[in-house]
Amino acid sequence: MIEPILVGVVLIGLIGMGAPIFLALGAGGLFGLWMARGPLAFFFAPTSFFGQLNSFELIALPLFILMGNLLGATPVGQNLFRAASLWLQWLRGGLAIATVGASAIFGAVSGVSVAGVAAVGGIAVPEMLKRGYGRKLAAGSVASSGALAMLIPPSVPFIIYGAVSGVSVGDLFIGGIVPGIALALALSAYIYVRVLMKPSEAPRETGPIPPLGERVRALGGIWHALLLVFIVLGAIYSGVATPSEAAAFGAAGAFFIAGAIFRVLTLKKLMKILAASVKVSGAILLIIGCAKIFGDYLNLVRVPETVSAALVATNLPDWAILVVLMLALVALGMLVDAVSLIVVTTPILLPLITTMGYDPLWFGIVLVMNLEIAVVTPPVGLNLYALRAVCPMLSVEEIIRSVVPFVFVQFAMLMVFVLFPELSLWLPRLM
């Protein structure tokens, strides 16, 4: 077992030296294959890399990223928050709850949590502070609810997990609906209870409730994007189109909405959006390809089977093993980005999960729920820094403190779906 330890040292050493994660994964995997198979490693490695990326379903990844970036360039995020705030203005804490609702819907539009934080947070936090909301409540509600984009379809993490595990991306999208709605409701309920216990954090609105006509008109700035998402997901769920085909339609529809309806696209802006989409997509695909090299080495030396046998031999009940795994993933998520965590841990943990009799579809759902915690916990929590970028009046330390109670809510909901798998599986089975 000395060879896997040396490979782990190489991987951690390269990451510690600041090497890109794809380079650390590829080099670590190639080194391990070389120790196990000698010069044949230089044949196995490129075969693994290109074999992993030669997947029709992976075409959905850059297309959904492009769709999200195109819609992110429009005022959809601001319009969502305005509409939600008008409808919930009568409720104490309504602006914070409206932030959760707007972030959840924008998550279905973009599929990227950072985009949701930037689009909604830039207007939601200043508006809440202007109306006397507590700074921690304002910051925490935006940073935590932005993570819903990872779970509510179309979700980029689900596409990555599907490519690594072989689970249907369409099934994963369906499976993410119930947990996504449940988590949004849990965050909203926490906000409501919190402001009831401490009314000073959310003063009650004293003005008149906006007339119904104004509230209905507020929906006029978002129906195009919502209709597009409904059509894209409907095509997937009904079997009319594969996720990749639906993603192509979604990207074309987003281009039409941004260019023809909102008219925010100039040639310079379009080139910037395309460049950003290519950069993000390329980085993710590099990580996925190099992680396959590393994963093939682990499978070659039977590391997943060894880990599975060791955990099963502890004779702990299944629920205890699952709780330990979730805590370990939360800790890893504080140090490793979401994409890397999916592609590195899935080949190791999935054999254990299937050995224990659990559904790989269910594991993908709870894994992404776990990653929602990762994006709001330092030092790698990207949502924290995205919120700081659009709300310079908040310090990073203040934002970190604000998300702590929301993280406990997220972890509690994670445990619910870990201990009761049927909650996330009944809808995919029904469909």
From TrEMBL:
Annotated keywords: Cell inner membrane, Cell membrane, Membrane, Transmembrane, Transmembrane helix, Transport
Transmembrane segments: 6-35, 56-76, 96-125, 137-160, 172-197, 218-240, 246-266, 273-294, 319-349, 361-386, 406-427
Source taxon at top rank: Bacteria
Major localization listed first in the record, in broad terms: membrane
Residue intervals of the TRAP C4-dicarboxylate transport system permease DctM subunit domain: 9-423
InterPro entries linked to this entry: DctM, TRAP_DctM
GO MF annotation, one: transmembrane transporter activity
Annotated compartments: Cell inner membrane
The protein's assembly and partners: The complex comprises the extracytoplasmic solute receptor protein and the two transmembrane proteins.
Stated family: Belongs to the TRAP transporter large permease family.
Function: Part of the tripartite ATP-independent periplasmic (TRAP) transport system.
Record protein name field: TRAP transporter large permease protein
